[in-house]
Design a protein that fits this description.
The chain is mainly α and about 150 residues long. It has 7 helices and 2 strands, in the order ββααααααα.
Amino acid sequence: METQLSAREKPGEMALTLTPSSPSLLSLILKSKDSPDTQIALYKAQSSMTVAGALAVPHQLSGLRKADEESLINAMCILLTGLAKSVNVGKNLDTLQTYETATLLIEKYWYLRLEEFVYVFKRAKLGKYGQLFDRLDVTVISGWVDA
């Protein structure tokens, strides 16, 4: 899964373009709400994510945000919704909290890659950051990322 981020300049502006050389994680996440098959493909990508795999992707959230902020926020919301469904906590994220959490994470961790969040979420689902005590919010998730 490799996506190249390229810049092309026009007089007075610079445009960033995402050019997938194979299906990117971003596009897979965005398509995952369309069918069970793409949801399964996303879960397979998540389960096989490693540190090396997450770090091998060349683009950071900041580059994806410049290229297509709406798609990046939607992708992060989909990841957060999947995380929330997986951990089954009583005090879960509602739609507005999910959107706010996505935007705050993208803003705070602009230097990370989307794949790194997939890796952190995978580890959280496996209990690698300790037990969840009936709540999922931006503070809990930030603690995982900072660990």
